[in-house]
Every structure is written in C-alpha cells, then in structure tokens.
Design brief:
Length: 642
DNA sequence: TATGTCAGCCAC
DNA sequence: AAACGTGGCTGACATA
C-alpha cells in the first residue's frame, strides 16, 4: 500500500493509495465498514479539467474519506479501479461532496453504472450548507464557499492551500495551472496527498456547517429544498442543448468580418485597437468632442452611453437626428459589439459543445448572495435579447419547438406582497397596469406616455434601491423633477415606502443581516443597507422560481427543460405537444404569495431559441440583405411569423 | 507567465 | 441625506 498524509490541525492524517489486490481488499473493508456503520463518507474526484462534457475529459482519481483517513483510487489506470469506485459509490448509503453537481455529473458520464439519480438522494453538499450559512463570496466580505475558504474558516486555518502548492509542481513539469491537472504524474505525492486532503476536509467540514446553519436559525427545510433544486439543475445540465454548428460557425465568421471592417474604419481616426479605452478617448477628444463623463478610476469614459450620444443614436441604435454623428464613435460601437458576440457567445458555444453538438452550460443553482442562479460556460443567461441572431444558434431537438415560460412581472408582485401595500395589491388583483396607476397618481389622469415611462423607471429604481439622481440620469429629467417623481411614487404607495424604511432600520439593528420569508439569511455590506429591500425581493423571487422548478419536476416535465433564466424556463417539446407542454409548465410554476397571484406567460416558438425573439424584429429586418445570404434564418423567421 | 484590477458589455 | 441590485466574461494594462 502506498501511503501519504495530509496535515489537519497539526496531525498527519493518512492518505492510502491502493495498488495491489490486497490493497483493493483493504479499501473494500473500509467501505463496507462505513456502510455497515451507516457513516457518511466524503467523495471527490480529480479530473483533467472542468469541461465535463468535452471529448477529452477524464476522471483521474476518485477519493473517499472520513475525518481520520482518505483513500485515493487511481481510476485512470484502468477499468478495475473504475469499477471499484463505482462499487463504493453504490455501496455507501450516505455521501458528502463539495459542489456535488460537478463530481456527480463527471461520475454519471465517466464511471460505469453510476447515475445522477442514484447519487443525489444520498449526498449532502457542503457548498449548499456553506452558502446557507453565509451567502457572500469572499470578495464580498464573506467566508467564501469554496472548499479551501470554508475549511480554513471552520476546520483548520493552517490547512495547506491545495491548489497553490500543486501549481509549483505543474510548472516543474512545464505546464500551467490550467493544463497541469491533466498532465501531472498520477503518482505525484503532493497530488495524491492533496486529493486525499480534499475528502478529509469535506468530511470534517460537514458537521461544522450543519451546526452553523442550526445555530443561525436558518430554516432547516432549505437544506433538502436546495439539494432538490440542485439535482433538477444537474439533470438539465446533463441534457444540454443542441447548437447548429454550421450556422454558428458562419455567424462567428461574419461577426469576425464585421468587427474587422469597423476596426479598419476606426483606424482612419488613429485608433489602432478598438478595445483600448485610452486610444478611443484620446482620438475622440482629438476630434473636438467633449466628454464630461469619468470612470470610477478617473479616466475619460467611453462606454456605450457616451459613444451612442456622440454617434447620435438611441438605446436601440436608431438615429436621433440631434447632431452630426461622430463616425468613429459608431465604428467603435459596431466593432466592439460584433467581437463580443463572436468571442463570448458564438465561439464559446463552438468551443464547449460535445461530440453531439450539444452545449452543457454550467448551472450554479445557488450562486448569488441572494441565491439567484448563475450560468456559465457559456453564459446563457445573458445572450442578446434585442436581436435574435445569437440565440438562433440554439436549436430544439429534432421534431421539437422551443418553449419559453416566464413569470409575469414577478418582482413588482413580490414588492406588493412583502410590503403589504394596499393600493399596489389592489391594483394587481384588479389586473390594472401599475405604471398607469403610478403615472395617474403622480401626474394626474391626463398623464403622457413619457410620464408613464418615468413611472416605470421610478418603480425599477425603487426596487433597486436607487435614488432621484440615478432616475434623473436615466430619464433625462432634472434632479428636482426626478425628486418629485420619487416623492409622488412614495405618496402613491405609502405602505411600501414605510416598509422599505423600516426594513433598512431593522437590517442595521440585526447586524446587516436579514431573514427572508423563506427563512434564508442574507448579509449586506455595512455601507449598503439601502440594498436590503432589493435583496429581499430578488431572493424571494428566486425562491419562488426554484419552487416552480421543483413543481415542474414533480409533474414529470423536467425532460423538456433546457435552461432556467431567473424568472423564465426555456424548454422544448414535439410540434404536436409543444402548446400543451408549455401550458403545463406554466401551470406548474403558477402559485401565490401572501394572496397575490404569480402567473406565467407560456410561449411557443419555432425550431430555434432565436425564433422566440423574432416576432417584433422580423418586420424591421426582413428586407435586410442578411436574409438573402441566410436561407436558414429566413426559414426560421417565416415560421416565427406563422 | 500568471494574476489582479479596471473598464466595458451582455442578461434579468 | 442619499445611496440602482445580481451575475459571467473579455481585453487592456500593470505587476510580481
């Protein structure tokens, strides 16, 4: 038996690496012993990288451990060791993992006879417990929810940094921190010791976190709730969604061409690199433009807003006609947008797609400090929604149509429910348009469309904890007019205004923490108690969405789901079933919060995700020569119109 | 080379 | 008195 060790609290904990038949028997005795005792065992893997669904991905080692020992199976050595790992996973009645979905998906795909469905019910995730205890990232002042940070805080401040030490070893073999995981010798002592260390730490961390969650009075039912939500998200991630590789490749090439053409244009004005804000601002100032805006760091600001003003276009890039457009500003805008769309979206899809042209974006089911979800690799929560070209790369499965179901204005409804504001509640129950009501109350019954827009901006501003100054900046109103609008809004919904004030006071009294209606603990920065109302709304809306997702799962609809997007479920179903499935998903998501109904808008599109975004755009761009070069897109637009 | 910060831009 | 929230990601630039 090869034996290494890992230091915890001044003790050297043994890390066993079985290599002979006798060693394997010893491992089996360890596992059956724990199984018979009903003891929870920590599990972890070391892999070639984080790209679980890429063709070259492999599991290198599988580790099992308890507080006083760890076992590292070198599964990449062969099928025998793979089967041994699978056997142990099936035999153990209770497991713990740090970030369960990553390892579970890796095992589901790369170990024999291991399915997500079998692992999930018996696994506790230390990440989930850590997030429930303190939802902040480290850079937000929290403990940090990674294994390293959480262990340093709850288990042993002097535990070695597993990654940092290994990076030196990676460099010695001529690799980097990204490529080293794939190439480090499977017998490297440090690698094996750290692999074992991770499960030792996980098993020691779990009871500490359980105690912490209890001590803080966090709603204990959130623990099974988050495990269930995470499991459904893992199922969605495993399925992934199909891209049209031909279309995406062509789109990427065209975006590259467009970006290059406008970069050439910018060169005429002395901007060699359109991404250099220094060059851009210098050139614009050199052309005689006045730019008053400054960045937080004090530099001349040349962001989208400034460039659009100089290019004399509005938010939708439509000409305003108020001045002579600055051609450099327009060239920078166009070149940057094309390159962002290409690198962040089109190329990211091509890079991450598996051998069947499916992308599996990583779903962080419990991510933000408010518990909202995040999606990365690629970032599918933030594809352009004003135009359809990028989303058109995503296709429903063969014979299927895309479905989108979102909650109808969920955040205002949550605002009304939490504050108990009678006027807002009554308006919602009557089905009135809130912004019309606000505008009528603030400006009188003869309010203009522009005043309704102001009412809408104020509503969002209040929800975000913003003030009159930001509202003035967004609407073009004078500061005093914006102040009047905010005052009018608060007069219209007096109970809401009072609720926001008292919530902030309470948050400060409670050490900048807040308990949401679901019993979740939120923590705020000491200079940002004003953000507490937004935090409570956002977090509550997320929990409603997560509850909706569980109801979708209960009704057997998860196989249709492609992606969760904050308040929207993207799904697909066969042509004949699509409308019925959309209706069922909408019904599953529908619920009420303190008497306020939370309804949904089911929508059925064509064969691409983009088709759901074509309806308005179609008429605007139907004559674009783009269509002539893209029969595929023309066909999709045709279907969208139908 | 790797990492951190700033600036910017995409979404809800 | 006022305070616009939550993310992922790329590229430039400075630094170790």
């Amino acid at each position: 038996m090869i034996e290494h060790s890992f230091p915890v609290l001044g003790q050297q904990i043994p890390v066993y690496v079985p290599t002979t038949v006798d060693d394997f028997r010893a491992f089996q005795r360890y596992i059956t012993g724990r199984a018979n005792a009903g003891e929870r065992v920590a599990f972890d893997t070391e892999t070639t990288g984080l790209d679980t669904f890429s063709p070259g991905f492999r599991i290198r080692t599988a580790q099992f451990g308890t507080p006083d020992q760890a076992w590292v199976l070198q599964v990449e050595k062969g099928e025998d060791l793979q089967r041994l790992a699978s056997w142990a996973l099936r035999t153990l009645p209770e497991l713990s993992m740090q970030n369960r979905n990553f390892d579970s998906l890796a095992c589901d795909r790369h170990l024999p006879d291991i399915m997500l469905e079998a692992l999930a019910p018996k696994t506790l995730d230390t990440y989930i417990l850590s997030h429930l205890s303190d939802p902040r990232r480290r850079d937000q002042g929290g403990v940090g929810n990674g294994l390293k940070d959480a262990s340093a805080h709850y288990v042993d401040p002097s535990a070695p940094d597993t990654a940092a030490g290994l990076y030196d070893e990676f460099h010695e073999i001529g690799h980097t921190k990204d490529t080293g995981w794939r190439h480090i010798d499977i017998n490297n002592p440090l690698y094996l010791s750290y692999a074992g260390g991770d499960v030792i730490l996980t098993s020691r961390l779990l009871p500490k976190l359980q105690a912490r969650v209890k001590e803080l009075g966090i709603n204990p039912s959130l623990i099974p709730f988050e495990h269930a939500v995470g499991f459904v998200c893992a199922l969605i991630e495993r399925r992934g969604m199909r891209i049209d590789r031909g279309y995406t490749t062509q789109l990427s090439a065209e975006l590259a061409d467009e970006s290059a053409r406008w970069a050439e244009e910018a060169k005429k004005y002395g901007v060699e690199n359109i991404n250099s804000t220094r060059q851009v601002s210098a050139a614009l100032l050199g052309m005689g433009e006045e730019i008053k805006e400054r960045t937080a760091g004090g530099a001349v600001q040349v962001d989208g807003n400034v460039l659009k003003r100089l290019a004399d276009v509005d938010k939708q890039w439509d000409p305003i006609g108020s001045r002579t457009p600055n051609p450099l500003a327009m060239a920078i805008l166009r070149s940057k947008r094309a390159s962002k769309w290409r690198t962040s979206y089109a190329e990211a899809m091509l890079r991450t797609a598996d051998e069947n042209d499916r992308v599996h974006p990583k779903i962080g089911a419990l991510a933000a400090r408010t518990a909202r979800m995040s999606i990365s690799d690629p970032p599918f929560q933030q594809l352009p929604s004003g135009k359809w070209e990028v989303r058109h790369a995503i296709r429903a499965d063969d014979g299927c149509r895309m479905i989108s179901v979102d909650y109808s204005s969920v955040e205002p409804r949550v605002m009304a429910a939490l504050s108990g504001d009678e006027r807002m509640t009554a308006a919602i129950l009557r089905g009135d348009d809130l912004h019309n009501l606000t505008a009528a109350s603030v400006y009188g019954p003869g309010f203009t469309p522009g005043q309704r827009k102001v009412a809408k901006v104020v509503q969002l501003g209040v929800a975000y904890g913003g003030g009159a100054a930001t509202i003035a900046a967004q609407t073009g109103l004078s500061l005093s007019a914006a102040q009047d609008a905010v005052k009018g809004y608060k007069r219209t919904y007096p109970r809401l205004a009072r609720y926001i004030r008292s919530l902030q006071a309470q948050v400060i009294r409670d050490g900048y923490t807040l308990r949401t209606p679901s019993g979740r603990r939120l923590v705020f920065d000491r200079d940002a108690a004003y953000a507490s109302f937004n935090g409570e709304i956002q977090s509550t809306a997320r929990d409603i969405f997560a509850q909706g997702l569980l109801e979708i799962h209960e009704r057997g609809l998860t196989p249709h789901v492609l992606l969760p997007v904050h308040d929207e479920i993207v799904a697909d179903a066969t042509d004949s079933q699509a409308h019925e499935v959309a209706r069922e998903i909408g019904e599953a998501m529908t619920m009420s919060l303190r008497g306020i109904p939370l309804g949904t808008d089911p929508d059925v599109g064509g064969h691409s995700w983009g088709s759901l975004y074509m309806k308005e755009a179609t008429t605007m761009i139907a004559n674009d020569s783009w269509y002539a070069a893209h029969p595929d897109a023309a066909e999709a637009a045709e279907k969208a119109r139908a």
